[in-house]
Amino acid sequence: MYQLRKKICMLGSFAVGKTSLVRRFVEGNFEPTYRSTLGVHVSRKPVSIGATHLDLIVCDLTGNEHFTGTQEHYLLGVDGGMIVCDLTRPETLEAWRRYTTRLRAVNPYAACVLVANKSDLTKQQAIDEAELHNMAESLGAPFFLTSAKTGENVEEAFMALVHQTLKRTPVLL
């Protein structure tokens, strides 16, 4: 049995649902009222994959388009990043590129998963799946359509990121 600690960061514009995704994954619930994250909020969740037990630390960073020294500090030691856009706001899709580029500039070894959130709002959806696919392909990262409200693909997206971080874990002899 192995015990590992992995740290991931949630990145994306304001109000894309980063905090809601974390709450759904860690606590299993959804809070419909919006509360902006100020600075960083840290959550923990134990995760087991076979004989490997992880202490997953999830850092929910504020949706600030201009990186601060504090944000870069969190990215330095991160094992992975979940970069989130809002399917109802097309301007948030370009944030996938900005945040992925920034994450890789600060920490080129970090794993990355892209998430298009609010898939439950089908009538308001303003980004089509072909755009998402093209952007994800250009960034070399998998993407997931999620809904923090319904829970659709939330666990799958987080676990895909966890699996990627495990592939990047050095073997200790």
From TrEMBL:
Key word Transmembrane present: no
Domain of life assignment: Bacteria
SMART domains: RAB, RAS, RHO
Gene Ontology MF terms: GTP binding; GTPase activity
CDD domains: Rab
SUPFAM superfamilies xref list: P-loop containing nucleoside triphosphate hydrolases
Keywords tagged on the record: GTP-binding, Nucleotide-binding
UniProt KW DNA repair keyword: no
Pfam family, one: Ras
Protein name: GTP-binding protein
